[in-house]
Design a protein that fits this description.
- The relative contact order is 0.27.
- The protein is an alpha+beta fold.
- 15% of the residues lie in helices and 41% in strands.
- Strands 1-2-3-4 form a four-stranded antiparallel beta sheet, with helices on one face.
- The protein is elongated, with a radius of gyration of 13 Å.
Length: 80
Amino acid sequence: MARDELSRALTLRWQDLRGIIPWGDTFEGISPAGRYVEVERNYIWATEEGGDILCEVAVYGGPSRYDGGARASAMIPRPA
C-alpha cells in the first residue's frame, strides 16, 4: 500500500511543490487487507532548498504502530 500511495504522491510536479515545501499530510485509509490505517505523505528538500524533493510515504496501523509501518520513498528531481 505504501508503494501504491507513493506512485500517486509522485504525480505532483516539482514546479507545483516548490512553493509549499516542506509539506505533509496524514489521512485515514483502509488497507488491501481491510484494516484501518493511517497514511502519511511528506515532501521535503532532499539536500538543499531549491534542489530535488524527497517524497516519503508511511502506512501504519495507528500512532502506537508507527515504527512497524511500511515505508516507501523516491525523489522528484528538479527540472534541468
